[in-house]
Amino acid sequence: MERFEIGMLAVSKAGHDKDMLYVIIGIDKEYVYLVNGKNHTLNAPKKKNRKHIQIIKYVDEQLKSRLIENNNIQNEDIKRVIKLFCLKNSK
Questions:
Q1: How far apart (Å, rounded) are the C-alpha atoms in residues 27 and 56?
Q2: Residue 41: C-alpha distances to residues 1, 34, 67 (Å)
Q3: pLDDT of 32-88, one tens digit each?
């Protein structure tokens, strides 16, 4: 079984948001809560079945610690992490 962590990146594998990149901000038994800073913000995260996402073993440690501590995180911080990941992994 894959291990889900707050702050980890994930890609949707199913649904109308297939192939979208998100940050995990919450975890429960069957679902994860995902944000991308645009249409799924910190105030309205996407609730997604664990089976329908593929985790990316990349965690921005600064973002993770701020999420865990609930330390004044903004949607712009989420967008920045996703953008930096995409830039690092583009050819």
A1: 15
A2: 28, 9, 13
A3: 999 999 999 999 999 999 999 999 988 888 888 888 888 789 999 999 999 999 998
* Structural domain of 79: 8-88
Length of the chain: 91
Q: Evaluate if pTM is beyond 0.85.
A: yes
Distance in angstroms (rounded) separating the CA atoms of residues 62 and 44: 22
In a domain, 20, yes or no: yes
Phi first, then psi, for residue 47 (nearest 5°) are: -90, 120
Sheet holding 31-35, edge to edge: 46-49, 31-35, 21-27, 8-12, 53-59
Domain tally, the chain: 1
Dist CA 68 CA 21 (whole Å):
20
